[in-house]
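> forwarded from #structure-qc
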């Protein structure tokens, strides 16, 4: 905001500026003799100059919105900006912006408030990478008597299969095809309960032979558990067989095969910058007790990259600054 006043000494014009953050209205400059102060009477002085927020001499930097919500303003309205808002020149890339991309499946949500834009994207921790092959129990082949169940939650798909402790006559088999040679990690998943077997046996067959792995299905419920890593010299298949020869109920839910060191699911923001200078990079999320405490963001720029770990159970609805960088192009993952 700018105003001019006449110098009592030289008669020349001098200029002063007033800046404010948070709430901007009219600036009233009253000249009384050689001083600057309030008007002595109810009527404006002949030397008084009023610059309202609607005047041609009024300017602002950043987003300022006209409002009439609170009375007592001068003129038609007043201008307001939120405290702690984004400063002028800020570049915001939302999850719905053209600069946002993902690998894997990231469903959008509005379940927890304080997000930017219309929603946010979410992904379960330690979820299947995009290159993983998941074979649920409907894709498997049971031998003997297996009963579908949904009694204990956390299963893949619509249910899981159950068999009581037996002699090995009953089994459940999966065959997972892989398209090329390489090393593959094989996982199994079940729902845990005290009536489960503590010695459930999975046999993994591959081009190099087979291996039997014993697991405790009373623990590690509803999560992928590594059975082993196996090398394939060419495209082919990996077989997994669960036996009922155990000391409790055995659960056939699903198996997963993925390349060793498979690229994880990622969300990326790419920000194009107009000039080389120092920039602050911020991230924003919605907090909740089910969020990751070790969410990893990697900031890439002309000088390299830096990975920062944040706790998304706290700090929701605000920006967290990680790093300053000089770059003509930036990326966050």
């Amino acid at each position: 905001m700018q105003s001019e006043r006449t110098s009592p000494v030289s008669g020349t014009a001098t200029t002063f500026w007033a800046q404010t953050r948070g709430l901007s209205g009219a600036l009233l400059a009253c000249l009384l003799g050689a001083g600057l102060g309030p008007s002595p009477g109810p009527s404006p002085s002949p030397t008084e100059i009023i610059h309202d927020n609607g005047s041609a001499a009024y300017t602002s930097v950043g987003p300022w919105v006209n409002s009439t919500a609170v009375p007592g303003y001068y003129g038609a309205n007043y201008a307001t900006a939120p405290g702690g808002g984004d400063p002028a020149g800020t570049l915001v890339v939302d999850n719905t912006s053209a600069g946002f991309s993902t690998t894997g499946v990231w469903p959008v949500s509005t379940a927890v408030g304080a997000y930017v834009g219309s929603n946010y994207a979410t992904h379960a921790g330690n979820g299947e990478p995009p290159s993983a092959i998941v074979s649920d129990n409907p894709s498997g082949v049971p031998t003997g008597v297996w009963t579908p169940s949904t009694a204990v939650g956390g299963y893949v798909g619509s249910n899981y299969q159950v068999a009581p402790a037996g002699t090995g006559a009953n089994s459940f088999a999966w065959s997972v095809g892989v398209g090329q040679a390489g090393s593959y990690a094989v996982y199994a998943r079940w729902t845990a309960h005290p009536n489960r077997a503590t010695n459930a046996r999975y046999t993994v067959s591959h081009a190099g032979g087979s291996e039997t792995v014993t697991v405790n299905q009373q623990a590690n419920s509803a999560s992928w558990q590594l059975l082993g890593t196996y090398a394939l010299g060419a495209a082919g298949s990996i077989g997994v067989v669960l036996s009922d020869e155990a000391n409790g109920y055995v659960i056939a839910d699903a198996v997963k095969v993925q390349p060793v060191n498979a690229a994880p699911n990622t969300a990326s923001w790419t920000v194009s910058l107009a000039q080389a200078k120092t920039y602050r990079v911020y991230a924003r999320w919605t907090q909740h007790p089910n969020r990751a405490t070790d969410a990893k963001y990697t900031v890439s720029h002309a000088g390299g990259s830096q990975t920062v770990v944040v706790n998304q159970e706290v700090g929701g609805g605000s920006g967290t600054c990680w790093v300053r960088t000089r770059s003509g192009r930036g990326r966050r993952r």
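QC bot note: Residues 100-125+265-332 form one domain. The two ends are 41 Å apart (CA to CA).
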